[in-house]
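Work Package 4 report. The design task specified in the project plan requires that, given a folded chain encoded as structure tokens, an amino acid be chosen for each position. We show below one input record used in the internal validation round.
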């Protein structure tokens, strides 16, 4: 300690002796450990000469007077044996969520060196670490040295303390700990280990630990990694009964050490969680709320729950970030904390006694990387969500020099800069504060635009590959993959739309089916229209522009605006025909068939449907054959040929089964249910929908889910189960406005069954004016039949005339059930 203090103030031994008024030999012998304990007056003269102030002066005098030569000083305030040169102790992993409170050492009786020792600060309650506690305890029981590795503030020390205290019964030789400081030597560490176990020298440790399992906790090994590794190597060689649990920001460079990465706490997923209890189940939220309660009295209000979830997600589950942000709750509301720090989490700091900020902690780990690893981290920081090894390889493939991606990932995971959760390809994610820090470094280096450009190209290519999988057996997995990559898809699309519209158009065009299945049709169409209108995208390949036009038309049909995109769909078909792109032609005919039907061009719709069936049959495209049969079913229903519609759909279901296309099977089942309902086979209709709905829930497709749930409600209403039908109608409110027409139609039948004719007319009229009726003439006819059946007197004749006009214009033939209803 004396030597470290002297060097920190830049004095030679002669200069210190002269300033203190003591002999140079005294200084020399004390530093070499050869002198007996100095007199109190001598120690005070040395402290004065060194300019030591409390608490360093107190610790210096205590070390000089109260411990045997060669042992470490005890810091009663910290609860650790600590080796801390006055050059300055950097902030450790102990503050915020990991902070150690005041504690005192166990009393050591040096005359009884076999006394059981528990020289550790008391543990603080851990949140969300149950699995870590069990796993680390198991590792400690079976390995000589276990290292907990992670970022500053992630909770390594707290975890180590809890594990050590809980394992104390399994270590009859004692449990104790030391905390490492800068400028420390292996001998200092060994002396500290000896001191906390009540022996004078490290050489006594083998006898002290012989036959009695003993546990030593070594905190903050990264402050002196080489010295710690050397000391641990000596301990493993000469004290086989000693187990060591280490905390460090980097792996311990010693063969045989078992590393355990300490990851941030689990955060809630993206999306609105309105229930506080559900949100609090996530460990990161639980810790934040626990710390928030310490600084403010009033609880979180229901209106704050959404803000709470977003704030915790931005903090990334890092305990230090959570606690520093929660401390702001003394003067700021949650909305204010999110507004001020949501996009500059790195600037949180100033609350800890040592003044450590998140930026300091991340910078310390960043400096452990070599230049190539730092460049790789900067490139990977553009990734917004979870990613795979393959995505990392694509992102790093354009960096200068050869990059061993696996080695880089291993290094980043080892330092806690990248977290790994669960299994599967998309298991890697940058800790949020690390991502923010690396993006700053990338911008400073002038590489951020290049990184974003590469990111956009990578995800455009990924989306193009995945688009081919959004049909058939691979559809569910492909949709799920895009769901998980939503954050990166948005980042890529926004950047490319401004900097590289051609790439953005390729990306958007490939996402059409996914947007449709996830009910994002308005958003997707807006992107496609914006990019197609951008003059910078006019030179994009004709096929890319054709698919984008077709995508905009397909999405427009979902929200009843297909007419506006009819010219775009025609242009797409012309482009595919000129290019000889059969797949594009099939898709265009299918889109035009549905689009023309929605806008009332029934003959054109049938023509495109039949062309699709003929072309698909000629080239052997089974999926498109199923689509054609499914679309053409409408014309059988229009003509009143329900038996023909049922046969066509049976063929479609058989073919969809052959190609294992779950979505097509679900859609065909839903249409078979609708045909059964129109034919009066209500139980069969309900049974078919019960088969279709789970499949549709798996793949998404909200439009067909509305149709299938509506068929169940309508079948129940027709069958006389008005109460059950009304329950279905009420439950469909969670589908939003897209289900309003269906809900009105069900409500009309329920009201008619209850003889509430005026109310029934009102509901059937709403159904007749809904987008559902505008897209499908059969629905418009059904709603008008309900209006006529519910109307008496002179108004009935006017309604009947309106019904006849619609039937003549659309060619829809009234079904037996319609006639029966009109006849009362």
């Amino acid at each position: 300690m004396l030597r470290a203090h002297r060097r920190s103030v830049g004095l030679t031994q002669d200069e210190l002796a002269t300033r203190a008024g003591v002999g140079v030999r005294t200084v020399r012998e004390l530093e070499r450990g050869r002198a007996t304990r100095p007199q109190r007056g001598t120690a005070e003269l040395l402290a004065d000469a060194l300019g030591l102030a409390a608490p360093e002066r107190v610790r210096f005098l205590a070390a000089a007077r109260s411990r045997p030569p060669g042992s470490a000083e005890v810091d009663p305030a910290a609860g650790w044996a600590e080796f801390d040169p006055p050059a300055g102790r950097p902030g450790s992993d102990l503050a915020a969520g990991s902070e150690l409170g005041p504690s005192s050492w166990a009393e050591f009786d040096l005359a009884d060196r076999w006394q059981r020792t528990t020289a550790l600060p008391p543990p603080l309650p851990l949140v969300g670490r149950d699995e870590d506690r069990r796993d680390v305890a198991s590792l400690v029981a079976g390995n000589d040295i276990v290292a907990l590795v992670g970022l500053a503030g992630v909770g390594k020390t707290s975890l180590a303390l809890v594990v050590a205290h809980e394992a104390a019964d399994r270590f009859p030789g004692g449990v104790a700990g030391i905390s490492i400081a800068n400028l420390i030597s292996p001998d200092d560490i060994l002396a500290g280990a000896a001191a906390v176990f009540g022996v004078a020298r490290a050489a006594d440790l083998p006898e002290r630990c012989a036959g009695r399992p003993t546990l030593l906790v070594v905190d903050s090994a990264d402050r002196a990694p080489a010295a710690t590794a050397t000391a641990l190597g000596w301990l493993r060689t000469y004290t086989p009964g000693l187990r060591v649990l280490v905390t460090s920001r980097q792996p311990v460079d010693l063969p045989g050490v078992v590393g355990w990465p300490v990851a941030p706490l689990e955060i809630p997923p993206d999306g609105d969680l309105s229930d506080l209890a559900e949100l609090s189940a996530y460990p990161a939220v639980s810790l934040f709320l626990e710390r928030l309660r310490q600084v403010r009295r009033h609880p979180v209000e229901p209106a704050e729950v959404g803000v709470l979830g977003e704030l915790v997600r931005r903090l990334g589950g890092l305990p230090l970030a959570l606690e520093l942000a929660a401390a702001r709750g003394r003067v700021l509301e949650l909305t204010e904390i999110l507004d001020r720090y949501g996009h500059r989490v790195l600037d949180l700091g100033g609350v800890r006694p040592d003044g450590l900020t998140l930026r300091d902690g991340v910078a310390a780990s960043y400096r452990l990387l070599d230049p190539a690893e730092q460049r790789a981290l900067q490139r990977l920081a553009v990734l917004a969500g979870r990613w795979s090894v393959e995505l990392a390889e694509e992102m790093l493939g354009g960096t200068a020099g050869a990059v061993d991606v696996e080695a880089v990932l291993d290094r980043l995971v080892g330092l806690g800069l990248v977290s790994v959760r669960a299994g599967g390809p998309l298991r890697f994610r940058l800790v949020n504060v690390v991502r923010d820090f690396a993006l700053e470094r990338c911008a400073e280096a002038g590489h951020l635009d290049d990184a974003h450009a590469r990111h956009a190209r990578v995800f455009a290519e990924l989306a193009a590959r995945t688009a081919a999988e959004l049909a058939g057996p691979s559809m569910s997995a492909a949709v799920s993959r895009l769901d998980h990559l939503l954050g990166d898809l948005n980042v890529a699309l926004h950047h490319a739309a401004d900097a590289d519209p051609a790439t953005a158009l390729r990306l958007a065009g490939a996402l059409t089916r996914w947007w449709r299945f996830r009910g994002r049709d308005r958003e997707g169409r807006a992107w496609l229209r914006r990019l197609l209108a951008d003059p910078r995208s006019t030179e994009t390949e004709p096929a890319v522009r054709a698919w984008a036009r077709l995508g905009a038309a397909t999405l427009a049909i979902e929200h009843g605006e297909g007419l506006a995109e009819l010219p775009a769909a025609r242009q797409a078909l012309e482009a595919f025909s000129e290019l000889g792109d059969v797949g594009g032609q099939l898709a265009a005919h299918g889109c035009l068939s549905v689009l023309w039907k929605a806008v009332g061009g029934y003959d054109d719709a049938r023509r495109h449907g039949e062309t699709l069936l003929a072309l698909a049959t000629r080239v052997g495209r089974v999926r498109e054959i199923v689509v054609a049969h499914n679309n053409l079913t409408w014309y059988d229903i229009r003509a009143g040929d329900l038996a023909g519609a049922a046969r066509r759909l049976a063929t479609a279901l058989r073919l969809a089964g052959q190609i294992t296309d779950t979505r097509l099977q679900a859609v065909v089942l839903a249409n078979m249910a609708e045909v059964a309902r129109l034919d009066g086979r209500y139980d069969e209709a309900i049974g078919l929908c019960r088969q279709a709905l789970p499949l549709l829930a798996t793949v998404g497709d909200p439009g067909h889910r509305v149709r299938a749930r509506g068929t169940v409600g309508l079948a129940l209403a027709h069958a006389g189960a008005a109460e059950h039908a009304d329950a279905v109608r009420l439950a469909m409110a969670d589908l939003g406005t897209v289900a309003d027409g269906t809900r009105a139609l069900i409500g009309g039948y329920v009201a008619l069954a209850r003889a509430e004719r005026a109310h029934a007319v009102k509901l059937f009229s709403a159904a007749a004016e809904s987008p559902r009726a505008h897209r499908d003439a059969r629905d418009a006819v059904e709603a008008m039949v309900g209006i006529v059946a519910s109307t008496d007197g002179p108004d009935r004749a006017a309604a009947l005339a309106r019904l006849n006009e619609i039937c003549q214009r659309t060619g829809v033939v009234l079904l037996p059930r319609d006639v029966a209803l009109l006849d009362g």
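The two ends are 103 Å apart (CA to CA). Validation will be extended to a larger panel in the next phase.
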